[in-house]
Amino acid sequence: MSYYGNSDPASPFTSEGPVVADWQGGWAQTPMPIDILAIQRFYGESKTTTFAGGQTYGFNTNITGASRDYFDFTKNSTPFVTLYNRGVGNTLDVSGFSTGARINLNPGTFSTASANNAVTNNIGISFGTQIDKAITGAGNDVIIGNGNSNVVDGGGGYNTFIVTGSSTNFTIDKTSTVTTVTDKTTGAADTLTNIDRIQFAAPVCFTTGTRIVAVRDGIAGDVAIQNLRVGDVAVTATGEHRTIRWIGRREVRPDAYPVPATQWPVRILAGAFGTDARGQAVPARNLRLSPGHPVLVGADAQNAGGVLVPIMNLIDGIAICREAVDQVTYWHVELDQHDILLAEGLPAESYFESGARAWFGGDAMQGWGRDVDGIASPRPGRCRPVAFDGPIVEAARGRIESGLRLRLATQAAWPSIETQMMVAA
Question: Any idea what DSSP says for residue 16?
Answer without folding.
Answer: P
